[in-house]
């Protein structure tokens, strides 16, 4: 009976974690460039149960009872890096990254993804798809959180004010007609290996170098759209349906757990008295 406790509890924990992930997706449905996660739920390996105290049985005659399911768990959160819908805003500081052909990773079977090059608050290299930017007091192009946008040369981009033009290749022309730089776009052949941080930022794992420049990767093409924002790639209706499913599954496991608890209570307090 204790095995039933473990299986039901594992199901509840799994659905709780799944609900937390779906809630985070819904909370960021209006965040530009946000990439939602998918849950990979797996079952623990089944175990074969055999009878005990079989020493008196003939040799080579095992007494298998059957298999025992040991519950489920959420193995991982897999990010979805598909393109989000573009929405026109008319703001010169809003830049949407529109992906074209992306090479497919031979190991994962999934296509690569593109990211803007930015820095975090400590000046470290980071990556984002959020193109909702602004111009700071020094004339530098920054994200809404104040992270600097980096050019293809790895330096910050000074545009002076918000009256600038961005070409489809990322080249920025200022109000005075000067070239301020070219927006850096990085290519991730295996974007699932990136680590999500707050503020829509991603980073590479420990010991990894920087992502290559997308302009230098064959078979990669893209364009930047000024005055547009990429929306979150989250289907609200599907996410709500998955949340309802997770709630119902959690409640089902909860009822099973309560039934086991009642049976255990009777076994201890009622059946035990008969002895």
From TrEMBL:
Residues 7-35 form the Flagellar basal body rod protein N-terminal domain. Transmembrane segments: none annotated. PROSITE patterns: FLAGELLA_BB_ROD. SUPFAM superfamilies: Flagellar hook protein flgE (SSF117143). Residues 112-172 form the Flagellar hook protein FlgE/F/G-like D1 domain. It is found in: Bacterial flagellum basal body. The keyword rRNA-binding does not apply. Belongs to the flagella basal body rod proteins family. This is Flagellar hook-basal body protein. It comes from Thalassorhabdus alkalitolerans.
């Amino acid at each position: 009976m204790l095995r039933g406790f473990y299986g039901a509890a594992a199901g509840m924990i799994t659905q709780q974690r799944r609900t937390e992930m779906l809630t985070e997706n819904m909370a960021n449905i209006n965040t530009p460039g946000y990439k939602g996660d998918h849950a990979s739920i797996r079952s623990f390996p089944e175990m074969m149960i055999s009878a005990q105290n079989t020493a008196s049985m003939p040799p080579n005659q095992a007494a298998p009872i059957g298999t025992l399911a040991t519950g489920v768990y959420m193995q991982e959160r897999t990010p979805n890096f598909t393109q989000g819908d573009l929405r026109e805003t008319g703001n010169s500081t809003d830049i949407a990254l529109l992906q074209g052909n992306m090479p497919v990773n031979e190991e994962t079977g999934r296509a690569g993804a593109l990211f803007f090059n930015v820095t975090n608050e400590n000046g470290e290299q980071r990556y984002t798809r959020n193109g909702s930017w602004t111009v700071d007091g020094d004339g530098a192009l920054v994200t809404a959180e104040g992270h600097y946008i980096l050019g293809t040369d790895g330096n910050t981009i000074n545009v002076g004010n918000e009256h600038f033009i961005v070409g489809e290749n990322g080249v920025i022309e200022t109000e005075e007609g000067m070239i301020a730089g070219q927006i850096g776009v990085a290519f991730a052949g295996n974007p699932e290996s990136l680590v999500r941080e707050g503020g829509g930022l991603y980073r590479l794992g420990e010991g990894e170098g920087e992502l290559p420049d997308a302009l230098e990767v064959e078979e990669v093409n893209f364009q930047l759209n000024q005055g547009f924002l990429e929306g979150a790639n989250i289907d609200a209706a599907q996410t709500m349906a998955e949340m309802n499913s997770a709630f119902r599954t959690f409640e089902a496991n909860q009822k099973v757990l309560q039934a086991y608890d009642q049976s255990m209570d009777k076994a201890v307090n009622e059946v035990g008295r008969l002895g």
